[in-house]
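Re: weekly structure request thread

Next one in the queue (248 aa):
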Amino acid sequence: MTELPSVFQIAEVIRLSPGKMSEYIRAVYQPIYSKDGLKVAGFEALARLDHPVLGSVPPALFIETAERTGHIGEITTAILDLSCRKCAEWNDGFVSVNISAADLSREDLPELVADILVKTKLHPSRLQIEVTETLAVSCDSHFSVLDRLKNMGIMTAMDDFGTGHAAGARLFAHDWDRVKLDGGVVRACLDSGQSGKAYLNQLAEALHCLGHQVVAEGVETNHQFRLLREMECIDYLQGYALGRPQPM
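Done, posted below.
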């Protein structure tokens, strides 16, 4: 078994490679399906790091390390550029990109994204920016940047909904286009019998009433897929049962 690089090794490589980390970043794409499972509506772009010395580094390791060392912006720029270029090759559909707290703290993020959209010739409506629920709770100033992105025509989504302590309040702090239900929450509800399914359905219905499209994440079995298809207010499905992240 190949030994994983340590956090210290990753930090040293990042520190000693200013401006070069983007050369080692590639994107894989996980499909997001319409509720019936027949049409791919879009893809979530996920960053992967393949380094000539460290080898293939797990995302949780290199992203966390890049955030702590102040280099996450370089990785975000690289994945935005790669994913927008790829999406521009498709006839339709959107691409969704996750951004970090450090990214949202950049006042020039909207200008950076605008430059990438112009360069890649991608219409703003085909890009979705994802922000985790816990990140959305962390700082009110982030919402001004999100609002500017949305005013450009870019879609915004709250990710991992249902895991934080102040999710409801943050739903009203920004006009989210989509809310992605955390996979763990989705599976726990589906495994809890009729009461759990009723709760999940009511949650999706409430989000619809607030004007948000709803994505159910973490769909891992055909049984979960069938149950979610029956819920009127679930708009999209994402998970290993429908497709794993793959290069394109």
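The chain has a mean pLDDT of 86. The domain at 7-237 is CATH 3.20.20.450 (TIM Barrel).
Next request, please.
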